[in-house]
Design brief:
alpha/beta, 2 domains, Rossmann fold, about 325 residues, six-stranded mixed β-sheet, four-stranded parallel β-sheet
Length: about 325
């Protein structure tokens, strides 16, 4: 698989423009004082389905030929990507078949169904997931849209960073969280041609640090099982395409403690008056913990989503992994 190039990223931006929101870039003087840096937040929590995932799903769905699209699309996901594919398919007027694990949250299933997705449940393990997806494809001929390891998806995710660079000049660092790697890969591929002096940093929970370990070892290592982080959007292992992009274009991966994730999430809620989910708080945690010196720098942060579980806010429950 080839990496999406800047022309394909621009094509993706034009393709999704009628459907996706151009999300705001936000700043906070009080947070700048706390972090000692000038921070520009790209608010993907305001994106449709409440997450950046809609960009990639929309680009993939609308990239299909009429013949391919007529058979519908299929994906597997327990969260934001499932909703994103379902909504993109509804906007194109085609079926969406969504394989979801049996332990996925009811609120997530409700969202997918609300967007018109046809849900197929499977036992929560990779073999069952792949079997469910393959059976749907066999019966329907639907086109598979991978949650992250797909050039069309990555090109769509890259449009968030592209928009940020169009609005903010002179960024010295850009950060995004890393799970499967679709967002950070797209961010890196947009940064290389559009702002080549900007350093790309991925942020990852200490309790789900497979991307950090993979980059260090030079090959993909599996995610920790069972997962122990509140950042439930960052539990997936890297794909071969996203890992290759990270190896080539991401400067470093910085891990963040659970304590810092919670503090960063709460800080954004309190100071900026916006809702972000734990996964989106991970790069903010990098600024909070100050494992690297970003003082005085112009830093872009992609807030990946805002689908927080309001019934189980992390600062209202005991911290499971506190030292």
């Amino acid at each position: 698989m080839e990496f999406p190039n800047v022309n394909q990223i621009r094509e993706a931006a034009a393709r999704i423009q009628p459907y996706a929101r151009r999300t705001p870039v936000l700043t906070s003087l009080s947070l700048n004082e706390i972090f000692g840096a000038s921070v520009f937040f790209k608010g993907e929590n305001f994106q449709k389905v409440g997450a950046f995932k809609f960009r990639g799903a929309c680009n993939a769905v609308f990239s299909l030929s009429p013949e391919e699209a007529g058979r519908g699309v299929v994906t597997h996901s327990s969260g934001n990507h499932a909703a994103a594919v379902a909504l993109a398919a509804r906007l194109r007027g085609i079926p969406a078949y969504i394989a979801m694990p049996e332990n996925s949250l009811p609120v997530k299933r409700t969202a997918v169904a609300g967007y018109g997705g046809q849900i197929f449940l499977f036992p929560p393990n990779p073999a069952a997931r792949d079997a469910a997806k393959n059976e749907i494809m066999r019966k329907t001929g639907a086109a598979f849209i991978h949650p992250f390891n797909d050039p069309r998806v990555i090109a769509g995710q890259a449009t968030a960073a592209m928009e940020l660079f169009e609005e903010v000049d002179g960024l010295e660092v850009i950060m995004a969280p890393v799970g499967g790697g679709g967002l950070i890969s797209g961010t890196a591929l947009a940064t290389a041609p559009l702002s080549p002096r900007t350093k790309v940093i991925a942020a990852e929970p200490e309790e789900a640090d497979d991307a950090y370990r993979s980059l260090k070892e030079g090959h993909i290592l599996p995610a920790v099982s069972p997962p122990r982080t509140l950042a439930d959007g960052l539990l997936t292992s890297l794909g071969d395409l996203t890992f290759a992009v990270i190896q080539r274009h991401v400067s470093q991966i910085i891990t963040v403690s659970e304590k810092a994730i919670i503090e960063a999430m709460r800080l954004v809620w309190e100071r900026m008056k916006i809702v972000i989910e734990p996964s989106a708080a991970v790069p903010v945690g990098v600024l909070l913990e100050k494992k690297i010196d970003l003082s005085g720098k112009r830093v872009g942060v992609i807030l990946s989503g805002g689908n927080a579980d309001l019934d189980h806010l992390p600062w209202a429950i005991p911290l499971r992994n506190a030292p």
